[in-house]
Amino acid sequence: MSFPAARTGQVLFLNGTSSSGKSSIAGQLLLILDRPFFHLPVDAINAMRARQRTLELDPGELAAVLARTRAGFHRAVAGMAQAGNDLVVDYVLSEQWRLLDCLTVLSGLDVVFIGVRCSGQELARREKERGDRQPGQAAAQLRQVHSYGAYDIECDTTATSPRDCALTIKQSLDQLPTPRAFDRLRSECLLR
Predict the structure, then answer these.
(1) What is the CATH number of the domain that holds 97?
(2) Which domain holds residue 121?
(3) Alpha helices for 83-159 (secondary structure H)
(4) The pTM is what?
(5) 91/89 Cα distance (integer angstroms)
(6) What are phi and psi of 90, to 5 degrees?
(7) pLDDT digits (tens, 9 = 90+) for 20-64
């Protein structure tokens, strides 16, 4: 028996710092979108790694493991979408190579690039409240995460609820720009 040819899935790619509200928005999107979507957060992939062994690595080895993990995540996203699954991806593009790899690996897929913004002051408050994040991590990511150019859709969770952000995203899906942000970014990278 062979797998039936399917349409490729749509990828709603939420990019924002740690603690910006991406996972909360993703949860709300799963409740309100008209088709079944999977929430594919990078944290789920990170949670699969043997934590004790990771703690024993020296900084160079750890950096290599984390780079392979992230590259594998990009390919898992592509594989799920190529099999016809619609996805809400929850990610932090805090290093340029991650974006460049995603542009390559997700080429040919319907990617909606969504910027999830939040003020630095609110990010610091959330990190402190959560207690499971390194203080200042989100602030350190802030500049790089949103440095790549325009998004297809943006939301700001500083004062807007995850539900309202999800509703804005859903309503905006019918009015997406063409070409899409990932396609524009891909073209700009090829011109360099």
Answers:
(1) 3.40.50.300
(2) 10-191
(3) 96-105, 120-130, 137-145
(4) 0.91
(5) 6
(6) -120, 110
(7) 999 999 999 999 999 999 999 998 888 887 776 777 788 888 889
